[in-house]
Every structure is written in C-alpha cells, then in structure tokens.
Amino acid sequence: MKNKFSLFIIVIFLSFCFVIFYKGLNTPNNYTPKVNEKKNIPTFKAKDFNSDSYINSDKIFEENTFYIVNIWASWCVPCRTEHPLLMQLSKNESIKLIGLNYRDNFNNAKNFIDDFGNPYSRILIDKDGILGVEFGAYGVPETFLIDKNKDIIKKFVGPINQEIVNEIKLIIK
Amino acid sequence: MKVLKIFIILFLVTSFLELKSDEVNDVVKNKILKNIRCLICQGQSVYDSESEFASSIKLIVDRKISEGMKEDSIYEFLREKYGDWIIYDPELNKNTYILWLLPLLLFLLGGAIIKKKFKFKS
Predict the structure, then answer these.
(1) Could you tell me if A132 lies within 8 Å of chain B, comparing CB atoms?
(2) Smallest Cβ distance to B81: which of A128, A129, A133?
(3) Overall domain count for chain B
(4) Do both B86 and B122 map to the same domain?
(5) Are residues B66 and B76 in the same domain?
(6) Order of all β-strands in the sheet with A39-40
(7) Where are the beta strands (DSSP E) in A49-94?
(8) Hey, which residues 74-103 in chain B have their CB within 8 Å of chain A?
(9) Residue A152: CATH number of its domain
(10) Cut 0.80: pTM above it
(11) Residue B52's CATH number
C-alpha cells in the first residue's frame, strides 16, 4: 500500500514536471508584442518635421477622428513597400496619418517624401528613438491605430499589407 | 586671500559632490540596463547591446534617472510599454507564481521526505 502511494506521488510529480517543461518548450523564447492591448497614447513633446518647432501630443491628436501613427525611416527598406498603402489610406477622410521619422537623416527623409509622396498630415522627428519607446515600439516600421477616445487600439509590427489596410478601413468605418 | 581660499574649497567640494552623484547615477543606470532585455537581440541585455533599440532604451533610462525617477518606477514604465518580458528579474504575478513557488515547494517536499527518512531510522 505504501509503495503504491509512493509510486503515485512520483508519477504525479513527474507528470507535473513534464507539463511545465512541455509548456515552456512550446512558448516562443522571443518577444511577441501584444497587438490588441488597449493603451492610452503617451504624452510627449516632439519636433515638427516641416516647421522645426516643438509641438505637444494633445495638440497633435486634438481632432475627433481616428489617427494612425506610422514609424518610418528613409533607410528602412520595408517602409518603401508599405508606403503606397499609406498613400492609399491617407485618401480616407475619416483618418489622419502621423509619421514618426525614426533615427533618420533629415535630408534623406525629405528626399524619401519627395520621391514617394507624403501620406502624413504631420511628421514628427524622433532623432534618438525615444518617441518610439514612448509608443512601445521596438523597430521600424510599426503602425498604431488610435481611436476617437485617444486610445491605441491596434498595433501592427512590420510593414502593413492590403489585408491590414482592409482591417483598418473596417474599424474606422 | 582668505575669501579666495574659501571660494576654492567650496568650488572643490561642490565639484566633488557633483562627480559623486554622477558616479552613483551611473551605477544605478548600469544596474537597470543589465536587468533589461534587448527585445530584438539574441540573449543580450540592453547594457550589452549596441542595437538601435538598446541605444534608445539607454537614452530613456538616462533621462528618467536625471528626472529623478526611482529604479522601480523605471522598470514599471518599461513594463507598461513592453510587458514583463523586458525585465530579466520577473515579479510575482499570476504568470510567474509557478516560477517563484516551485523551488520553495520542492524544498519543502524534499525536507519532508528527509525528515520522514530520519524518523524511520531513529
């Protein structure tokens, strides 16, 4: 009886260890950002790309509309692939696009906009990447959808595609 | 002459104190950076990494320390932005309680077994 009980305890213990390790092995060992977590937009002060003056975040997001914050850079190759889609989105009147120029050279960024078009209603300069951190970004490109309550409701890591554009259009409809 | 001496002493003392506080800030900063995971690197802390993400985090930690933010508040700020994964030293919550309690449980179980064995022998 005693042996049976010991065996039972050992089996339970080994099964427990197996479940823990199995679960651990199945969990990816790299960072997977939470893309659907609702968060307030951060409060910040940023330099405007065109006027060279500083502007507060409450002034940037003052209109009662949806906003998209897109983190981009002229040196970022995937940003070029998503740019036509941003141009497409900028034609939609229910949304405003804010560009966050991430760790870029001003002249290169200007050439990029001149060559590919400007989808943004405002571009902010993020010279040292601090604004990106305030948004919880960790790379470029990254896109955030902000609703009328000024909450970040969606986060898209990497270049956006047609599927994402359709999803955004569906949300802002 | 006396006034000049006092002035020099005061200058030296304030410079020394300033150096000392910079040194303390650097120690705290390095401690924090070593405890933050570089999210785009393979097994590196922000302290060890030269990536763009790491350098932005280094700058923001530096800024927060200069603003007088405490170590725990900086971790909380980063946790709010990136989740628990960014901190190497996880806090006790519903996702990590097994991690924290399992060693204690095993210790107690082992202790109980040993105690029982000794009891039988004696």
Answers:
(1) yes
(2) A133
(3) 2
(4) no
(5) yes
(6) A39-40, A151-157, A142-146, A66-72, A95-102, A122-126, A45-48, A54-56
(7) 54-56, 66-72
(8) 81-83, 85-86, 98, 102
(9) 3.40.30.10
(10) no
(11) 1.10.8.640
Q: What is the number of CB-based contacts under 8 A between chain A and chain B?
A: 40
Peptide bond preceding A28 in cis form (omega within 30 of 0): no
Which of A23, A27, A31, A105 is the best mutation test for B, with the most CBs of B within 10 A? A31
Residues in chain B, total = 122
Flag whether residue B69 sits within 8 Å of chain A, measured between CB atoms.
no
Q: Note whether A138 contacts B55, CB cutoff 8 Å.
A: no
Range of the domain at B103: 92-122
Could you tell me if B40 and B83 lie in one domain?
yes
- Tell me the DSSP string of B51-83: SHHHHHHHHHHHHHHHTT--HHHHHHHHHHHH-
Strand partners, A45: A56
Listed residue (A101, A27, A44, A98) closest to A69, CA to CA: A98
Contact B63 A130 (CB under 8 A): yes
The encoded tokens of residue A101 equal: 């120029």
* Range(s) of the domain holding residue A16: 1-30
Which chain B residues are within 8 Å of A20, Cβ to Cβ?
Answer: 98, 102
Q: Token match 């000049």: residue?
A: B4
- pLDDT tens-place values along chain B, 122 residues long: 777 888 887 777 776 666 666 777 888 999 999 999 998 888 899 999 999 999 999 999 999 999 999 999 999 999 988 888 899 877 777 777 777 888 888 899 889 888 888 877 66
| Residues A90/A66, Cβ–Cβ less than 8 Å | no
